[in-house]
Amino acid sequence: MKMNYKKSLKFVTLLITSLLIGLVSAATYKYMNIDGSTSIITQKLVWIKAGSEQSGDTVTMTLDVEPDIPTDFNDTLYLKNKDNANHNLTMTVTTIVTAADFDYYYVYIYENFTIPGTWTLVDYLNIETLDDQYSTYDLNEPLQLSSYYKLDFGIKSTLTATGSYSFDITVRYE
Predict the structure, then answer these.
(1) Contact 172, 92 (CB under 8 A)
(2) H helix runs in 29-49, sequence order
(3) I need a surface site. Which of 71, 76, 128, 169 has the fewest CB within 10 A?
(4) Whole-angstrom Cα distance, residue 107 to residue 89?
(5) Do 76 and 153 touch, CB atoms closer than 8 A?
(6) Cα gap 166→157, rounded to integer Å
(7) How far apart are CA 157 and CA 105, in angstroms?
(8) First to last CA, the chain
(9) Burial class (CB in 10 A: 0-12, 13-18, 19+), 10
(10) Structural domains for the chain
(11) What confidence tens digit (pLDDT) does each residue in 9-25 have?
(12) Strand partners, 173
């Protein structure tokens, strides 16, 4: 068997060239690393609905009413400060119900840390009014550690109201 030295020489040359390119390329790379860590934090403020603490930042309420009959929903929703510090907050109506379909639609806000054991009405939000809000910043009365706000709903739809209505309240705190 006859060996082709030209082809072998070309093959060896290509092999050596490839190795040299690989070494030079590897030598010019710079390396970067990520040193990461994960901390498990607990929510500072939590929703309590129907006696159960809710996970996450959003709570969903379904409030069924009959036309033209005043309906109150009491002791159904709480906002608790689970942190070891006081927190100022603002509750703002960000999505409203159609005012023409309701005689009134309120969220009454109570606290029990000023007079322990007694729920005191501090304000209410009109769910028919965009950007209606309650804020502790102006009052300098933050939600104290291990304390609650109780949110009760008072609703009366008109006689002609039908269907489903959605609203949103955004709570911003620091």
Answers:
(1) yes
(2) none
(3) 71
(4) 16
(5) yes
(6) 13
(7) 8
(8) 85
(9) exposed
(10) 45-173 (2.60.120)
(11) 777 787 787 777 776 66
(12) 89
Asked if residues 155 and 105 have their Cβ atoms less than 8 Å apart, the reply is: yes
- Cβ atoms of 93 and 132 within 8 Å: the answer is yes
Query: What is the Cα–Cα distance from 73 to 55, expressed in whole angstroms?
Result: 22
Residue 147's nearest CA partner among 108, 113, 122 is 113
Residue 167 Cα to chain centre, angstroms:
16
Q: What is the pTM of this model?
A: 0.75
Number of neighbours of residue 33 by Cβ within 10 angstroms:
5
Q: How far is CA 33 from the centre of its chain?
A: 32
Which letter does DSSP use for residue 87 in this model? B
Residues of the chain with pLDDT under 50: none
The two three-digit tokens of residue 31, written as one number: 């390396």
d(CA 126, CA 132): 6
In this predicted model, what pLDDT tens digit does every residue of 67-81 receive, in sequence order? 999 999 999 899 999
CA distance 76 to 61: 9
Measure Cα distances from 149 to 99, 108, 139 in Å: 26, 10, 15
